[in-house]
Design brief:
This protein is an alpha/beta fold. It is built from 13 helices and 18 strands. Helix content is 26%, strand content 18%. It is elongated and about 85 Å long. It holds the Pfam family ACT_AHAS_ss.
């Protein structure tokens, strides 16, 4: 069995499949290898032996004595053992051209597809892909990951990552990246505009004129100045909404399960119930989680002021939308704006149906909170740069399922990456190997999650191939990579 490594790549061969009970591994030296593990955060089965071919490591690494600094600008000078032009990037769902240009600047081979792929289509397409870029509609399941023989990393060019089996990806050594902040301003502006639109009954007045009815009224139309905005989830988007709302003269209150210092004149509420009872407008900015499913249901809607408004631009599971439709039709809630739905179509086109259609003073938008030219360009840049750093340098900063590490560059070194089961003694075993092989370590960085450990090591060039082979053969090893 031979593992061809280099240039940030884990170009492996599959030597066997783990049994369902994780008790055995069958090895066939001629078959392609990829280590797999169960979903969840538990202990993963050990990998079969992985080692580098004797010719896969360069012996002429020289950068004129450059030492210990950021390696962002050094990629063109590092003698990678695998040509960058052979690194395959697959980008789905109309990912920004900004990302494409960044990958091409690295001489990566880039393929773009404007739509999401089904699981079966993706399983076929991903077989020889090293870097996968998706948005929210592509599902990266354990089944898809098992088909990815050479996959190094996944980039979600959006905020959410629930479309990826994160635990399974972690268990087979694949970090997943996203862009939690790049579309913050775009979402905040949408929410702020909807506050004003609802307070002036824009949806109804616009629909009436489209139907030929002139209806100039002031009843039920309000200025937002002096009104109270309640923000549930005071994170990056929530705080941006607060700043914009205060510029209109609104009083801002917020609730978050994590203690947060207020910006401006915002005031903290101790409970969600307190916020719902005080706010004229309620806007939701919470993640998808078990705790947030139907966070706003029939009981919470009844707590809201009569004539108040609800805005949801977070996740479709956060609000019981059938209960919201009833509250709108009864007049208890005076208006609503909804940008996210529990079940969203996989592609644009007719046929969308929902209980909120036809409800009074209701704005429905097709998940466009972050859909601006500026946001998509920012997301493209942020995620692409993270993926490039992983491929070139082994950096995992902002990975959602991996320890976040970035080791500075050290000249005249090989860089070894090892992903292993997180249990006592692994680091000791690796350092024992270095000692036995007379390998001098220049720098070493370890990070862990509950399930895995991620070790980045720079060792001097004279390191033998036997050293890398022994590390890969450790029972706890999941994946080993040599960058250069």
């Amino acid at each position: 069995m031979v593992l061809f490594l280099g240039g940030g790549l884990f170009c492996g061969f599959r030597s066997g499949r783990m049994s369902e009970s994780n008790k055995s591994v069958q090895v066939s030296p001629s078959a392609p290898v990829k280590i797999t593990g169960p979903t969840g955060g538990g202990i993963y089965s050990t990998s079969p032996p992985i080692y580098a071919s004797p010719n896969s490591f360069p012996t002429n690494l020289t950068l004129g004595g450059v030492d210990e600094h950021s390696i962002d600008d050094l990629s063109d000078s590092i003698a990678y053992s695998f040509p960058k032009s052979k690194i395959k990037v697959l980008l789905l769902e109309n990912i920004s051209a900004t990302a494409v240009k960044l990958f091409e600047r690295q001489s990566f081979s880039v393929e773009t597809i404007p739509k999401a792929l089904s699981v079966e289509e993706l399983k076929e397409k991903i077989k020889d892909v090293h870097v996968l870029g998706i948005r929210s509609k592509t599902k990266v399941t354990a089944e898809v990951l098992d088909a990815a023989k050479r996959l190094l990393c996944v980039g979600c060019f959006c905020i959410g990552t629930d479309q990826v089996d994160l635990d399974y990806a972690q268990g087979i050594g694949i970090p997943v990246f996203n862009s939690p902040f790049a579309n913050t301003r775009s979402v905040a502006e949408l929410v702020t505009s909807e506050i004003i639109a609802l307070s002036r009954q824009y949806p109804d007045r616009s629909m009436e004129l489209h139907c030929g009815q002139w209806n100039k009224v002031s009843k039920g139309c309000w200025e937002v100045r002096g009104k109270t905005l309640g923000i549930v989830g005071y994170g990056h988007i929530g705080t941006q909404v607060a700043v914009l709302a205060e510029s209109f003269g609104m009083h801002v209150i917020y609730y978050d399960i994590i203690p947060k210092l207020p910006l401006g004149n915002s005031q903290k509420c101790e409970t969600l119930e307190e916020l719902l009872e005080e706010a004229d407008f309620v806007t939701l900015h919470v993640p998808k989680a078990v705790e947030t499913v139907n966070l706003i249901g029939e009981r919470q809607l009844a707590m809201m002021k009569k004539g108040s408004y609800l805005i949801n631009a977070s996740r479709g599971t956060v609000v019981d939308l059938s209960a919201l439709a009833k509250a709108l039709n009864r007049g208890h809630v005076a208006g609503a704006a909804v940008d996210v739905f529990e079940k969203e179509p996989e592609k644009n086109g007719p046929g969308f149906q929902h209980p909120l259609q036809g409800c009074p003073n209701t704005i429905l938008t097709p998940h466009i909170g972050g859909s601006t030219v500026e946001a998509q360009a920012n997301i493209g840049e942020e995620v692409a740069n993270a993926l490039i750093k992983l491929v070139n340098h082994g950096a995992t900063i902002n990975a959602v399922n991996f320890p976040n590490l970035e080791l500075p560059y050290h000249a005249e070194c090989h860089r070894i990456l090892n992903i292993h089961v997180n249990k006592a003694g692994v680091l000791r075993d690796i350092n024992d190997i270095f000692a036995r092989c007379d390998t001098n370590v220049r720098a070493e960085l370890l990070g862990t999650t509950a399930a895995i450990g991620y070790l980045v090591v720079d060792v001097e060039k004279k390191t033998s191939d036997e050293t890398k082979k022994l590390i890969s053969e450790l029972p706890a090893s999941i994946r080993t990579r040599i960058l250069y």
